[in-house]
Design goal:
mainly alpha
C-alpha cells in the first residue's frame, strides 16, 4: 500500500514538473501553469509537500524540490 502511494506521488509530481517546464520539444503553456499554481495555492499543497518531503523517495524529492523552487520563483 505504501509503495503504491509512493509510486502515485512520483507520477503526479512528474506530471506537475512536465506542466511547469514542458516536456521534450513542448513548451509549458502559461495558462496551464497559472491554473496549476492557483490550485496548489488554493489547497495549500506546497506546504503539505514540504512537510511530507521526508516520507517520499529520494528521486521523487529531487523532482518535488524543483517544483517547489519553480513556485517560489513565480
Amino acid at each position: 500500500m505504501l509503495l503504491q502511494a509512493a509510486e502515485d506521488v512520483s507520477a503526479q509530481l512528474a506530471a506537475v514538473k512536465s506542466m511547469l517546464c514542458g516536456s521534450g520539444d513542448a513548451e509549458p503553456q502559461s495558462e496551464v501553469t497559472a491554473q496549476l499554481a492557483q490550485e496548489i495555492y488554493n489547497h495549500n499543497l506546497l506546504e503539505q509537500l514540504i512537510t511530507d518531503l521526508a516520507k517520499i523517495d529520494f528521486e521523487v524529492r529531487l523532482g518535488s524540490s524543483f517544483c517547489t523552487a519553480m513556485f517560489v520563483l513565480m
